[in-house]
Write a structure and sequence with these properties.
424 residues; Endonuclease, Chain A; 14 helices; alpha+beta; 7-stranded mixed sheet
Amino acid sequence: MRLRSPTGRRGVPTSRRKKIQLIAVIVVAIPLVGLVSELVAPLHPANDLAERMVVAEPPTLSDESPTLCIDGPEFMAALRVDLAAARRRAVVQTLSFEADEAGTALAAALIASPAAEKALLIDTYSRFVVSDKLICAPTRLLDMPLGREARRTRQLIKDLEAHGVAVTYGRGFGFGRDNLAARDHKKIIVADDVAYIGGINFSAHNFLWHDMMLRIADADVADMLAADVARSRADESGNARGEFGDVEIVIGAGEGNTAIRDRTAEAIRAARTSIAVECPYITEPYFTLLGEARRRGVAVTIVTSEQNNRLGMKQSIMAGCMRNDLELRFVSDRMTHIKAMLIDDETLVMGSANFDFLSGELQPELVAVIRDPATVADFDRRVRQPSLAESWQWVGSGEESLSGRVGSGIMTFAQAVLTAAHTR
């Protein structure tokens, strides 16, 4: 009897064979991603950003209570104030940084800041994806405006470095933990003892999407977040958790760690009467958690975009809501990039993390759990109520449609592939 070699077929070591298979998948996937990106609406709104940024005013900035900055122009107006006042440190971490109205505004504010330490950490994602487009895809080779923006971005980074800003590309690409999807998704700014967290990247289309950042004037919060950015700059991801009065900060390392998912699940399970969610990307395990809340009598409402820039996401969300008897509302006229959950009208969960499997355990992420009454009331007034007024309620047919099954299948397949890629 012939025994099969433990090394696998034809004597090739199993680990090596897996790497060969992964390379083959990548070679096939890159052109497919390019083709798919042509089929999905880019969701880039009409660009009146320059005009909006000129007239934007910061919200009333308080050192006593966290402050919400709604949408890119208002956020940038507030950030300019704090960067101009910084003397010790001005540290920024972002997923995307592009030489457009958003990126150049940040660069100008960083260069003008009198802070002694100035640093910008950009995820390596931004080297390959510009304006939501994969620049190395074959379908993008003749996209001249995209190429010009990529070159302008490289030049802008050189200008920042020439003016004393330490620029680092974090989390380089590779196998497993460093694949294209598993990016360091955190958005953090620290200006002396003021910190910002949330979902806004420094790119024009993100500034035009509906989104928000949270400003926290607290030295301990700023120190915690600055330490996390320093770890990320050294290509190290870690968990951290801190409570600061009415604000709790949770940082998850990704790479299979479930700190973000577990804390969000804890908040959902504590709900007594209502959960209001606004988020563009929602997958399991959150549908199951929200369904469990619904079955114990909690009213659950989800607001998301009618047009979504992830293939199959809209259909998957519709199917998840129908399966779990959740109210679903669509915003038609703009992309909402907000990631927030208001529980019992008294607890706000928000940050960089979407309520999906990527943010839940694969990507380094950050969430804040906020119980400050003034911040919660401001969110209700400036985010939740307008979103309810601007959205329309979707009513399912009672049976999962073919498109819903396809969308759910795409999400399930993506989750299985990416989870396997992170298994060490």
